[in-house]
Amino acid sequence: MEGETIAGGRAAVSVETLRLPVAGGIEAAWWGGRREGPVLVLLHEGLGSVGLWRGFPAALAAASGLPGFAYSRPGYGRSATIRLPRSLSYMEEEARWGLPAVLEAARISAPLLLGHSDGASIAALHAALTPHPGLMGLILIAPHFFVEEVSLESIAAAREAYEKGDLRARLARHHDDVDAAFWGWNRAWLDPRFPEVFDFRRLLHRIGTPSLLIQGLADEYGTVRQIEEAAQRWGRPPRTLLLEGARHSPHLTHEGEVLGAIGDFLAENGFAPPRPEAGGTG
Length: 282
Known about the structure:
Blueprint: E1 2-4, E2 13-20, E3 26-31, E4 39-43, H1 56-64, E5 68-71, H2 90-105, E6 111-116, H3 118-129, E7 137-141, H4 149-164, H5 167-172, H6 178-190, H7 194-197, E8 211-216, H8 225-233, E9 239-243, H9 250-253, H10 255-268
Parallel strand pairs: 4-5, 4-6, 6-7, 7-8, 8-9
Antiparallel strand pairs: 1-2, 2-3, 3-5
């Protein structure tokens, strides 16, 4: 275990890395120690990993007072690789089987799922289809509930950057099998059948857990339509945060506002102490 100091005068947060015996072995990490009670479980984006959360998990653990846990799904980061092509239902499969297996292996009984992009979709699918008996809430950053044309355009541009630019070299620093990580995501999304397979708006009424939805209004991978559709269909009205000027990773570019909204959400639902009136981020 090693210490990690958070910028902005927050207390140091411990980080522990480990490997879980799931799906051939997956990398994982804890921030703030392992404790009983609520745990913020971070589910990464379509090209993400434990490391690509960067400093956010430590900042989140320090600001919330709750432990954080993240893992790299099979085919990502330092986890065991996968065989391509990836199923077009890969997010539903992770929601039904992969995530529950990880929660069991990590002995997490009261998860608060925090997902980004693909990870947000997986969290929502889990809550709609096979919710963990101890599931306490959802925090979804740039979620996808259906396919938009802007998503496909940006994913096609990523393919061009991977084949002809430096994207492959940059991603290779974070993934042991970078081609499995990239093509598993890219080819699934660009498959002509994917928009039909990946549309679970009809399931959103099943989600009754407390939820916070966060969307950047300059997101190159999705629009506010995702949040609007969810707000209309959610089984329990969600709290929302829309961020002017934020692109696809507002937790990295607008960290203070995101942490502020998460803190308010946690306090509102009794998951964490109320935030102080003075000196908070809004």
